[in-house]
Amino acid sequence: MNTIQAKINGMPVTVPAGTTILEAARSVQVKIPTLCKHEDLLPTAACGLCIVNIKGSPKKPRACCTPIENGMEITTHDEALTEVRRTVLELILSNHPNSCQTCGRNGSCELQTLAGDFGIRRDAIPRFVRELPEDHSNGSIVLDFTKCIKCGRCIEVCQEVQNVWALSFLQRGINTRMAPAGDITLAESPCIKCGQCAAHCPTGAIVENDENHKVWEALKNPDLHCTVQIAPSVRVALGEEFGLPPGTNLTGKIYTALRRLGFDAVFDTNFSADLTIMEEASEFVERFANGKGKLPLITSCCPAWVDFMEKYHYDFIDNFSTAKSPQQMLGVLAKTYYAEQKEIDPSKIYQVSIMPCTAKKYELERTEEMFASGYMDVDVAITTREFARLIRQSGIDLLNLPEGEADSILGSYSGAGTIFGITGGVMEAALRTAHYLITGKNLPDDAIEINAVRGLDGIREGSVTIAGNTIRVAVAHGLANVDKLLNQVRDAQAKGTPLPYSFIEVMACTGGCIAGGGQPYGISNEVRRQRIAGLYQDDRDCQVRFSHENPEIKKVYADFLGKPLSHKAHQLLHTEYKPRPLYQK
Amino acid sequence: MKIDRQQLIERTYARKHPSAYIRVGLDTGGIAAGASLLYDRLKALVNEKHLPIEVEQVGSLGLSYLDPVVEIQSATLPKLFYGHIQPEMAEELLSAHIDRNEVLDRHVIARFDPDTRSGQTPAPSGKAPHLVFVLDTDTDENDKTDFILFSLREEIKRSINTNPPAVIRALDMRLYNKGVVVWIPHLGITYTHVLAPDVTRIVHQTLIKGEAIEDLRFTSPERQNRIVLRNCGLIDPERIEDYLAVDGYQSFAKILFSPSSDPILDELKASGLRGRGGAGFPTWLKWKITRDVQSDTKYVICNGDEGDPGAFMDRSVLESDPHSVIEGLLIAARCIGATTGYFYIRAEYPLAIKRMQKALDQAKELGLIGKDILGSGWDFDMKIRLGAGAFVCGEETALIASIEGKRGSPSPRPPYPSVSGLWGKPTAINNVETLAGIPAILQMGGAAYGTIGHEQSRGTKVFAVTGKVRNAQLIEVPMGTTLRDIVYEICGGCQGTAAVKAVQTGGPSGGVIPEAKLDSPVSYESLKDLGSIMGSGGMLVMDENDCMVDIAKFYLKFCVDESCGKCAPCRVGGYQMLQLLDKIARGMGEATDLPLIRSICVSMQNASLCGLGQTAPNPVLSTLRYFESEYQAYIEGGRSYARKMKKLREGGEVVRIP
Q1: CATH architecture for residues A213-573
Q2: Whole-prediction pTM value?
Q3: Which of A24, A26, A29 has the alpha carbon at shortest distance from A66?
Q4: Does residue A171 sit at the B interface (CB-CB below 8 Å)?
Q5: Which residues of A touch B562 (CB under 8 A)?
Q6: Is residue B20 packed enough to be buried (19+ CB in 10 Å), middle (13-18) or exposed (0-12)?
């Protein structure tokens, strides 16, 4: 690879060709301020804060989108640059409401932070904020257009990374605003609720719909039996809200915190992830080995992906695994199996789920199958960020809590369940169990970790040989990557050639649930890797690494469900899909 | 019907001009002044009376202040240009000029023959009556003209018995503030500052003996040099045969079969031609970079998204000589190896679009565009894309986004369009004026073109001069011509009695240049030094009544309205600065406002993504530079001062602003 040698603030830098000045500066520990550039996204070049001086050039180019060239002598900070940045910042602030205290991003806002860094203590330029109503139409995400600084990140992620095209810029000049394309509400738009817009927004313009009040209402109601579940990826991300490095596994402390909050039973979504694998792997074996049903089998545990598929790729409905997501499986078991076991009136059970995801809020009422217990299977889903606030509000010192345990029913999990939170994890877990179901034997110890489906490449392909059969599999994350995969399948279907894959895993968010739209702010590939490492370590630390060997899973089948794909399992643990229009208006 | 190379070179399909014709300038400006009605009436009358004369349409000569303009060539009178011919004058014009062999009083555009090509129109017969034109160029009053006119007629009557010249009051002498001017076309003599005692000399020495009177004679060379505008107003823009008759497509025919594109680049390099859209990037270099990028698909784009307030250069060229732009784009395409060309024309120019489409159709029919052009084996197609009215779409990356069907917002450069442009392919984007000049530059030779001009700015530049100027018009002058010459000599200074206060160049991206600096030559560099820019060629003249705070507000408001809203410095900076200017203009300004305005200006210049935002502060900064006292007067004078100023201006009084 060609390398570039240049100087930044007098310091020599050597970086690969194509590196931007912004990235090159980071390599010598120089931080250039920016409000619009995000590592995940192409530069929008909107904010104008990252301008630098290049010796010999009359202009001040933007560091975010200017590739560094050999021999460049760059100054990133001087009095004039700081003065321009300050004025630009003051201009942005003059068009932004002064409502930090009541904002969803209070304390985590990039604009607030920069204003603090620059020591801005007064409104230098008279404030002008156009009044625009908030959009609460969609139960997952709230849009507050007045707080938008038009950085374009949400639109870039919605259009280019997720290929959803729900958000766009409308109008021009000072009236420019981010809004659902066509100036409709978010609920009427093709939005799939993945929340990546919220995860990338530098301000409080896009935030999750905070539903902590529902949790508090339930907890203080003495008539209710409150149960809770935590998703795999919550445990390795929550610590970031409390100053720990990404990937720190807080499972035990979270259990303790939940009990202190007043939950009557603490479950783990990892348990139901194992259950999902039992159903889904069985489904796969049925289709692959016994020829019942369409191939490739496509995973369906990501609700944003399900919504995307129903809107954009509904020709693949028959390929979708009918197994519900772990959240819903746990919900329905809590109000049937658990209720039976503990002799509790299921109508009195209030089920809270703590998820890395904003689309999980939408999944709660996606179809009538989400009421399979006869009640709403999960009553409220809150994101990791909301959960962190819940802990803070209750005065719990999370970091110094003793380790706790989950309830011994719907609480234990295998390593296969915990890696659900990672792109490729569902595939890996399913293959571990599929191997057992086909051959009757577990994968040997050195083959448990299926490296072909690990990593952060947008599309990963691999093949696994089980009993002499080669199973070709593919993993995609970030929905823009899905089109390519599905088109290969469509081509093969049209031409009648062999299918390129038998099993496909899709996660809407880049990196999988560990980087979901409800996770702590500050996502980057480095953060993704650390959270992923945390979950893979959890897998390795587990005594049991196969879903079918989880003793509680065995018990629930023995006591209640019979066997995978049984009539009862179908009633409670499976769902259906239907095409949905892109626009509701 | 396709033509081959030989037929093109031999001008087989060039139209022979009729020996007698009436040409009406049918561009948007002319039509607005009634030229279209006039054309219809003339046509009907000629048909009705079976007159041996052709009525034809042409584009614009640029003399907007004289619209509707008519050119007449008849068998018995010398070729003349008439101005201000209203539709109801059609009958009078025909009966006077054709039937009675008389020239219309008060309608002749004197000293004007933009057609420098020889042999196009037949010379008038030897028996044509001699004409003498008179006009007072100081004022629009008739007293002095009448006096000299009458004196000349009397003296001629007394002294010349055979074939006495007719003395006619001209409409416009194309000279200003030169006293009474007398023009004797058959001798090619112009006298200025003619006073009563000169009448006898003129008649006896000049009209009788044919000698010039040196102390009266005006000999300054023509200030304009029409290269880009060479065909404008002289040929029918809707007939390719007319363009072929004026060496049209000859440059293209020559380069099409050249094995290398180096000679084109060499010629353009020698010519010193720089982009006429305003930024002034050397055209040859842009083409070379695009040519040298390896790609199987490349594009050329003609930027016809002219949007500066008061600018109409590109519209005029597109309406008057579309084939020259097509030829320029063909040459660009051939040079860089493009496969498709786009004309991006703003939808507000319906006539330009109609004529361009017609021209494209004609060129396709003759095989100048399409497959295997002229048997060269080269395929090239051209399409028109309409701009939807956003000023920022004149910025090249926004223009590309617009053609691609996206929101017209600029994107960061690099990569430059030359490397990665339309659909990610190498793309050369040139302005209408740049392209229209290129066939002529290749014809005359790059070196010859390069002899015209000033320092780093070579060749000629078209300007649309408007505002408080006496004669708003389109001009083409050599680079280096002073602003003073343009304003006073070519355009006649200010209307009315107020004096020129300043000239604004470069539209909303440019700055205001005060009267005292008008001796500066027009060039990319000198205008920049003055705090303005060359821009695309809009030039607005302001008189003493114009308040500079208002002027700054006007231009800034334009940029605020037209900002795409993408980047913060431009989107918010422009808006907030406008609020501050408005506050000052209402007499509510504070001492702290000017420093704040200046710092917003600096942040916009440095931190805006595209040229619109980077240059939007120029009108504010330049008025602050030269006219800060006016801002101070508002701030110090407060609301009563602002009210007074408003009242005075509304009353039409000359208000000398401190």
Answers
A1: 3-Layer(aba) Sandwich (3.40)
A2: 0.93
A3: A24
A4: yes
A5: 172-173
A6: middle
